[in-house]
Amino acid sequence: MGRIGVIFKRELVGYFATPIAAVFIIIFLMLAGAFTFYLGDFFARGQADLIPFFDFHPWLYLVLIPALAMRLWAEERRGGTIELLFTLPVTLWEAVVGKFLAAWCFTGIALALTFPMWVTVNVLGEPDNGVILASYLGSFLMAGGFMAIGSCMSALTKNQVIAFVISVVVGLGFVLSGFSMVLDLFSGWAPQFFVELISSFSFLTHFNALSRGVVDLRDLVYFLSLISFWLFATALMLEWKKAE
Amino acid sequence: MTDSGYFHTMRKPEAGTEKTVDVMVELRQLRKTFGPIVAVDEVSFTVGRGEVLGFLGPNGAGKSTTMKMITGFLTPTKGTVTVNGFDIWKQPLEAKKSLGYLPEGAPAYAEMTPLSFLMFIGEMRGFRGTELYRRVSETMEKVNLEGVAHQPIDTLSKGFKRRVGLAQAILHDPSVLILDEPTDGLDPNQKHEVRGLIKTMARDKAIILSTHVLEEVHAVCTRAMIIAKGKVITDGTPAELEARSRYHNTVILRLRGPSTDGVQATLEGLPGVRRAEALDGAEPEYRIIPKDGQAIIGAVSQCVHRQNWDVVELSVEHGHLDEVFRSLTMPAQALT
Fold first, then answer.
1. pTM for the complete prediction?
2. In whole angstroms, what is the distance from residue B94 CA to residue B291 CA?
3. Range of the domain at A90
4. How far apart are CA B223 and CA A20, in angstroms?
5. What is the phi/psi pair of residue A239, to 5°?
6. Going edge to edge, which strands form the sheet with B99-102?
């Protein structure tokens, strides 16, 4: 196990040593369920798929993931442990990646705990499990995108409230840019390639593609490069703001 | 005698008696600015194996900033730091391997227990399996942490937290130790313990520690450096530092019985004596200040014999470090 692994393990265990894990997972599961059954009319639709479930994920993540991410680096700064971490024989990117992977993996655990939805729909009907699997993959990748943005904002400021608010706003930008409502604002006057450019930056465009069951390499590359970009920005922020 | 060159010349004969000059830490023209503020201004020095360097200075003098640059946490604006032969910026991983660091306030992950925290640090340092367990349990024993091994760190007292910080710094038996206020906030017994620990480790390591407590310099340091406004003001042994005190080699003489008039004049007539001050007290007591810090205890004791005075106390003062500290860091006010 390398140093990334050591940091990953410490961080992940840390979530479960504090009430954060329980609170986050319970709230996530409750909200996911409530949205699916009440707003999504899961039963009334009478269809054996999880579309009403996955449709709400961008909005759940928009609020919940920044709440989880805001402490990533802000907490290290507040407690002074950042000084400890970066005077150990570890590189900046190892620390950034290790902490990010732990946080991402934690959201993955929360997501995996929604398996009763999948069981339910399989008991009630005969859904296309390939589509559901692709949707889970898309949802997990999207969670990583939100988490990487949050990681960068957490590195930017010692104040967790500010980190949370900025993460939500930036995340909202990435969600909304795929909305037809927003795209319509541009499509009247802007050239077509520009509208497509905006839409191609959106979480929704790529998430929707995956949740239709089409695992396109481009969507995977989109999420992974988005995560890499924000992690790179995190490292820059840390280097720049370390002394504060 | 006011320039720091005085101490450099005094250090020379001592350097010759050292067996090997094994330079472990070297700072060259280290400078750090935060915007318009110069925190550390062209600081250069070396620390060898076996040396315990005490960093003294008022708050905000640049002690912590210097330590943060030595340990590679802060990037210097200018200058270089080498630890065990490795440049901390060009070969950070190699340099950091031979470095143990206790940051100010001894930070640690609050939700972890001392045991899990030290296991984490050990794993980060590359130890695995039985070697890891051995190191962790030995270090816990050294700093007396066994009793609280399974309690979350944020429930521990300040003394224990400090020991956890010290434990993570020495876990890998580093050849260079940087300790930022290692005894701050400890009770006298804990201070004594930590100082004892530092002393036992001093032989084969280079240790730099910062402190506000001047008695600590006496207790553990082989060398003391006063820093003010980012600059090194003096660098010498604690004894040399004391020699700069106005009270260096001052003799205190306390006599029994009612005070007699002739005593003060007799004392001032002795060779090498600049002045004899009568001190307030129930019994006649005098502070005899020598000229240029020369040793006058011999002359005084002979005089006591000759005069047949009934002596209660006769002692030599080496000087007051805090007075030296004040006069060097706030020269204008020390004159008054």
1. 0.85
2. 52
3. 3-241
4. 48
5. -60, -40
6. B99-102, B176-180, B206-210, B52-56, B223-228, B231-236
A10 burial (CB, 10 Å; 0-12 / 13-18 / 19+) is buried
- Provide the 3-class DSSP secondary structure of residue B126: coil
Min distance A111 CA to chain B CA atoms (Å): 25
Rounded distance between C-alpha atoms, residue B66 and residue B209, angstroms: 11
Distance (Å) of CA A27 to CA A101, A113, A144, B230: 21, 12, 19, 51
Q: Residue A244 has what pLDDT?
A: 62
CA separation (Å) from B86 to A220, B93, B177?
Answer: 42, 9, 15
Which structure tokens are listed for B22?
């094994």
Rg, chain A, Cα only: 19
Three-class SS state of B318? coil
Q: Do A83 and B68 touch (CB under 8 A)?
A: yes
Q: What is the mean pLDDT of each run of 10 residues along chain B (336 residues)?
A: 40 43 89 91 93 89 92 93 93 94 94 96 95 95 91 92 94 95 86 89 92 84 91 87 80 80 83 84 84 84 86 83 78 51
Pinpoint the alpha helices (H) of chain B.
5-17, 63-70, 92-97, 114-124, 129-142, 158-170, 188-202, 214-220, 238-243, 262-268, 297-307, 321-329, 331-334
Mutate to test the interface with A, among B88, B124, B172, B176 (most CBs of A within 10 A): B124
pLDDT for position A243: 64
Taking only residues 287 to 306 of chain B, the set having a beta carbon closer than 8 angstroms to any beta carbon of chain A reads none
The minimal CB distance from B103 to the residues A10, A84, A90 is found for A84
Hey, what domains does chain B have and what are their CATH numbers? Answer: 5-243 (3.40.50.300), 250-317 (3.30.70.100)
> Cβ separation of B107 and A79 shorter than 8 Å?
yes
**Residue B106, φ and ψ in degrees, nearest 5:** 45, 65
pLDDT at B17: 43
Listed residue (B141, B140, B123, B143) closest to B132, CA to CA:
B123
**Among A7, A17, A89, beta carbon nearest to B111:** A17
CA distance B112 to chain A (A): 8
Cα separation, A141 vs A146, whole angstroms = 9
Residues 57-76 of B with CB under 8 A from A: 68, 71-74
pLDDT for the residue numbered B13: 41
Query: Of residues A239 and B280, which shows the higher confidence score?
Result: A239
User: Residue B7: what pLDDT?
Assistant: 40
Q: Is B287 helix (H, G, I), strand (E, B) or coil?
A: strand
The complex scores an ipTM of: 0.89
| Tokens coding B290 | 């020598």
Place of tokens 């506000």: B212
pLDDT of residue B259: 67
How many domains would you assign to chain A? 1
Are the C-beta atoms of residues B314 and B304 closer than 8 Å to each other?
yes
